[in-house]
Specification:
By secondary structure, this protein is mainly alpha-helical. The chain is built from 13 helices and 5 strands. The protein has one domain: Orthogonal Bundle (Phenylalanine Hydroxylase), CATH 1.10.800.10. The N and C termini lie close together (about 10 Å).
Length: about 270
């Protein structure tokens, strides 16, 4: 069984604190919302988005799951410049009922999962600088939008993400935040999946990272088959490339497994 690699790695979504009740969370997560202030993005910042998009899409074209690629034109993400969330949401809400909300940075785990439970995905209202294309201290709008949102236009993933949000709220409140975070990390953020007989990129952290997308597919690194039990017992790295990447049998299979997981089942997975 694959076990811990870095006990000190911080959680992927923010600092976990004791959670308020689910009903209170429905109010509290809105406290983290800020305007996107799209009109304040500079020409240079829009250029950073275009540079990242132009170098990422050609590589991903044959190496990422098909619904991701299909989501880009459906949502108008193939247009130049940083997407304006209002226009993006017009398309996304029509497709799956999801919408993007603007936040200033990482939010606590309980608020993050509460957002997902309401079909709201948090988007950082900033983008990396032109001299830091490959380094991020925390996720920016390119990671959040380009990495995550195309698959939110795919109904199986839309359902999965809402289910993980609901389960995440309960898990964090009951002391099992680490377990749900590992499952999220090894699928939604850094997972791989089989499609058409090939291993392809699934996770947003890989989709939005030029260096790690190459590494996950091409490097000599373990790629064990994804199971809920193994993924729940395997810690992740947030400070460097992952030491392994779980490979789901398919996007649909892993989405269905995770969507059907409840709190009692999650507790049984905890190492």
């Amino acid at each position: 069984m694959f076990r811990e690699f870095d006990e000190k790695a911080p959680p992927p979504f923010g600092s976990a604190e004791r959670s308020p009740s689910p009903s209170k969370l429905r109010e509290d997560w809105q406290d983290y919302l800020v305007p996107q202030d799209w009109h304040y993005f500079t020409a240079e910042e829009h250029g950073v988005w275009d540079t990242l998009f132009a170098r990422q899409v050609p590589y991903l074209g044959t190496r990422i799951v098909t619904p991701f690629l299909e989501g880009i034109p459906k949502l108008g993400l193939d247009q130049p410049g940083i997407p304006e969330l209002g226009r993006l949401n017009e398309r996304l809400e029509r497709l799956t009922g999801w919408r993007c909300v603007s936040v200033p940075g990482l939010v606590p785990d309980d608020a993050f999962f509460a957002m997902l439970a309401e079909r709201c995905f948090p988007i950082g209202n900033f983008i990396r600088s032109a001299d830091s294309l490959d380094y991020l201290e925390e996720p920016d709008c390119f990671h959040d939008i380009f990495g995550h949102v195309p698959l939110l236009a795919h109904e199986p993933v839309a359902r999965l993400m809402q289910a993980m949000g609901r389960l995440g709220v309960a898990a964090v409140a009951d002391g099992f935040g680490d377990t749900i975070s590992r499952l999220y990390w090894h699928t939604v953020e850094f997972g791989l999946a089989r499609e058409g007989g090939e291993v392809k990129i699934l996770g947003a952290g890989l989709a939005s990272s030029f260096g790690e997308a190459h590494f996950a597919i091409e490097a000599d690194v373990p790629r064990p088959r994804f199971t809920l039990k193994e993924a729940a017992a395997t810690a992740y790295r947030s400070d460097t490339f992952q030491p392994l990447y779980f490979v789901s049998d398919s996007l649909e299979v892993s989405a269905a497994e995770l969507e059907s997981l409840d709190l009692s089942g999650l507790k049984r997975l905890a190492p």
